[in-house]
Design a protein that fits this description.
alpha+beta
């Protein structure tokens, strides 16, 4: 009975070679990989989008958040099935995101701490794998995140 409840220590588990740099310590992962959808608004840091040939964005912050809430409703329908959630997220990111990462289905790749804006980093590192965020607001605009790894 005692052995069944013993915790496995991180150092007892030998990660495979590619995972060594992403080892999870007591403070969480050193890197995460997320998909994201960015909706910029007129008060964003750079209020233009590659989707509109860099024309100025005129929607308000509230309108951007409202649009993302609509996308969240669609994503929540697939939340029980991670494969469907990822596929739907990638499709929406490629069609709806104002970030150039839309060309990669919203994939930002792996990044470590202090590489993104603090609010974005906090949300990304706070998610579990295959977990969807709520709306995260930064100076760049409003985002939805999905942690992959």
């Amino acid at each position: 009975p005692e052995a069944a409840t013993a915790a496995i220590k991180t150092e007892d588990v030998k990660p495979s070679a590619p995972d060594k740099k992403r080892r999870t310590g007591s403070s969480g992962p050193s890197e995460v990989r997320v998909l994201h959808i960015l909706r910029k608004h007129k008060d964003s840091r750079r209020p233009s989008s590659w989707r509109t040939n860099n024309q100025p964005i005129t929607i308000t912050r509230e309108e951007a958040v409202e649009e993302l809430n609509g996308l969240l409703e669609i994503l929540h329908e697939d939340q029980a099935n991670p494969e469907n959630l990822i596929a739907t997220f990638k499709e929406l990111a490629s069609e709806e995101s104002d970030c150039s990462s839309a060309k990669r289905n919203g994939d930002l790749g792996f990044f470590g701490r202090k590489k993104m804006r603090p609010e974005f980093e906090e949300a990304a590192f706070g998610l579990d794998i295959n977990q969807l965020s709520g709306i995260v607001e930064t100076a760049s605009g409003a985002h939805i995140l999905l942690r992959l790894e």
